[in-house]
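Lay summary

Proteins are chains of building blocks that fold into shapes. Our project writes down both the chain and a compact code for its shape. Here are two examples, one after the other.
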Amino acid sequence: MGGFPLPGEFGERARDILAGRLAPVPARDAATVVILREGVEVYLLRRKASMAFAAGAYVFPGGSVDPRDTDHAVAWAGPSPAEWGAVFRADEKIARGLVCAAVRETFEESGVLLAGPSPESVVADTTGDDWEADRLALIDRSLSFADFLDGRGLVLRSDLLRPWAHWITPEVEHRRFDTRFFVAALPPGQRTRDVGGEADQVTWARPADAVDQAKNGQIFLMPPTYRTLGELRDYRTVAEVLAVEREIVTLMPGVAEVDGEMRIVLDDDYGFGPS
């Protein structure tokens, strides 16, 4: 049986949660964006070993929804929050926050900005000291996303995003996220850069190569990242990925005791750890 073993304190925590002796931590709304470039390649960041969550893992850009991400002042172009809510089975306020968080976090963690001066255009270049100052101000929350866009005369381009998946962190984790996954193409003229912060390394990789590296123990991937890369591995172009009509199904790995050992498990066709 596939799955990921839960040794020590996590194993005991899992038993307590299953027995009803311990309540799971509530999951925070979050957004993740798979940035794609022709090849097909994806942008991955390696989280610093010092991070409290997913330390050392290669992940896509993303993070928690900031309460200000739900601000109606955010200039908006493309599918409405209500339309996104229908896709992700969320109310309009949460959907607005998810899309804003997706665009904001992508800019914070990669330098890529899915916004433009008009509903039909996109920023061509986000390099330079002024952009870096804004990025850092967004990270330390001294600048709201709405004010950032307004100050530059930009509108969020929700039409540049496509829905991909919905994952909830297992109940055994101390930090839990209710995360919607998006995919988006790297806008023409823009380029990612090593922006530091929570990551100590960034790379572009073909999905199949990243999966193989994870299988060989060369890199560490969290289950949602592993599965998403597996789903993307057979696409030949970015356009093919963006054209996919996805039915968004909520996935939350569970906890089970297997031969006396506590494990995180998902489903029979997905062994993401030692069997």
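And here is the second example, written the same way.
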Amino acid sequence: MNGRFYVVGGAVRDALLGLPASDRDWVVVGSTPEELVAAGFRPVGRDFPVFLHPETGEEVALARTERKSAPGYRGFTIHADPSVTLEEDLLRRDLTINAIARAEDGTLVDPHGGQRDLQARVFRHVSDAFVEDPVRLLRLARLAARFTDFSVAPETEALLERLVADGEVDALVPERVWQELSRGLMEARPSRMFEILRRCGALARLLPELDRLWGVPQPPEHHPEVDCGVHAMLVLDMAARLQTPLTVRWACLMHDLGKGTTPAEVLPRHLGHEGRSAVLAQAVAERWRVPNPCRELADLVAREHGNIHRSNEFGAAAVVRLLERCDAFRRPERFAEALLACECDARGRTGHEDRPYPPRERLAALLEAARGIDTAAVAAAAAARGAKGPQIAAAIQMARADAVGAVL
């Protein structure tokens, strides 16, 4: 068949950085959809011509150009035919470090200085068309969380601000926002993603509940870092350090949102922020269609992290009530994630990064003891004494408290 094949984008970038191979994306120049289908490629692109390789399953796209025709990342008219050159295709890409192509013989095509910017550790846009697609802002922020020693070129920073000022960020759809946020949360230093978003004003549009935490004080005897926004980022980076799953990282990000709505006259204290945090976290989850496992854990951690921190002071009955509120008997795995998020919260403070967190191990052991109770036998014995529903539940709760008390 006609056409010249090139690997493009992240796979070339990562290879040049000496990183493990990522999924390869290909672009083919000088071919048509009909030729690719005849050669066994399977079409899968809905918005533009993308095909799956018949043997490797890798994505192959026809070289294309695009023209802005409406707001948002879908607002483009795509043009793809054999006359589109590789250089024209690379010109429409976001960053210079992603606009490098590698031919099948290994030759690199780098018309925009991507290799230079890799060496300089700089994120730089390819052209002013960068401002036409708001997803590019999110993608750059996510890459900043992965490539922690890269800076943003000043002229590119100006385009990020323009994306916000022009309202393009407001046209982002929930699926793409969550896709990029969730990927960025799983990078090495996720706080950098939010640093970039906040600096250009995008965080105030996408997550105003989080953005308003900066500048809000906390009691320095508990939080040496003082600032609520700084604390939120320390907690998030601690979650990355402990290699936690996405559910835990999302819960860490959401757990203190209520501190941004504490009345000024009671600062720096934040009494009752847990309930406010839970309400705000649910609103964020609705806005960006956050998956249920993430939103449920975030709700639990927001409501109960203060009680989990203080649980060393609880007696047996109070511990059992805490476990019941956390639904720990039915969902012990989720409770384990909640404890991990609380450890990140406790260690996400200046000078506390390497301190132990006793409540996590203690509550896990107490839950195990309470779950060892034969609830069916306790219920049967209570029923034999004439107990009904609430009385049977109280008998089970008492038996669990006895088990916890024996450990305490």
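What can we say about the second shape? The CA atoms of residues 30 and 83 lie 6 Å apart.
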